[in-house]
Amino acid sequence: MNVNRRGSIGLMIGAVLGLCAASAPASAQVKEPLIFAAASLKNALDEIAAQWQRQSGKKVVISYAASNTLIKQIAQGAPADIFISADLDWMDYGQQKNLINAETRSNLLGNRIVLVAPKDAAFTLNITRGLDLASALKGGRLAMANVDAVPAGKYGKAALEKLGAWDGVKDSIAQADNVRVSRGEAPLGIVYQTDAASEPAVKIVGTFPEDSHLPITYPIALTKTSTNPDARAFLNYVRSAAARPAFERQGFTVLGPGSPRS
User: Fold this and answer.
1) Are 170 and 92 in the same domain?
2) How confident is the model at residue 9 (pLDDT cuts 50, 70, 90)?
3) Is 90 part of any domain?
4) Residue at 191 is within a domain
């Protein structure tokens, strides 16, 4: 998310969408596992990958983009070893298409969605049923990820519908292919709590009730075609206690045994 000089919001610049295609051919020539991960995981997963490299001496290649983009690239033959989705739907899609190793699938993380504004915003909003978000926009646009395909956008739309606010803003949405990718500008945006917390140019002005949308769950699995033993080792590391602090520093909820989403 970038805030320009006029104080409007633009979500992160989108070179990541081209990264997957660029990474895939190289992965066929090297031994490092190729990880396809939801863009909202970048800060935490980069830290975990560096930590794993220090401890094991081994590297991984990580491509970040929207979950729907990643799983469709896997379906088209991209040689990913691990897929980490920002929602259950796209992991379910991968399982239905026999693209993932279902025996290795588990729910890894939880997150929340929030409403953000430029850091100098002098207001907050109580996000409850009857929210008049259209008035808060003051004729501007609401930045969101694609509400039909990208998990953050789908969660956001579901929450706005549940709260009775969707009809008032549906014609004012500035959509992007990725929650961290947008060329548009807007006075308000709906993003993951973890992305908002890592971007100093914005502030959280409201948090969506957890019961206004399905639980935000990040599942992880090996792909069906992966034969790289280091991929399984890295998957186990990501799910281990060693990785937990990095996820928690970014604001994720680590799911484990006993969790309702585990």
Assistant:
1) no
2) low
3) yes
4) yes
* E-strand stretches of the chain: 2-3, 9-10, 34-38, 61-65, 82-84, 106-111, 113-118, 142-145, 173-176, 188-192, 202-207, 216-222, 253-254
Strands 113-118, 188-192: pairing is: antiparallel
Q: Do residues 185 and 124 both lie within one domain? A: yes
Q: Is 203 part of any domain? A: yes
Tell me, what's the pLDDT at 99? 98
Query: pLDDT digit string (tens) for 193-211?
Result: 998 888 888 899 999 999 9
Q: Could you tell me if 92 and 175 lie in one domain?
A: no
User: 110 has which bridge partners?
Assistant: 217, 253
One-letter identity of residue 195:
D
CB 39 within 8 A of CB 178: yes
Strands 9-10 and 2-3: antiparallel
CATH of the domain at 45: 3.40.190.10
pLDDT at position 261 over 70: no
pLDDT greater than 60 at residue 22: no
Enclosing domain of residue 198 = 2-11+111-212
Global pTM exceeds 0.85: no
User: Does residue 202 sit within a domain?
Assistant: yes
Q: How is residue 196 annotated by DSSP?
A: H
When divided into structural domains, the chain yields a total of 2
> Which letter, b or e, does each residue of 105-122 get, where b requires 16 or more Cβ atoms within 10 Å of its Cβ?
bebbbbbbbbbbbbeebe
Indicate if 147 and 222 belong to the same structural domain. no
Q: What is the pLDDT of residue 237?
A: 97
Question: CB-based contacts of 81: which residues, under 8 Å, 6+ apart?
Answer: 33, 34, 35, 222, 223, 226, 228, 231
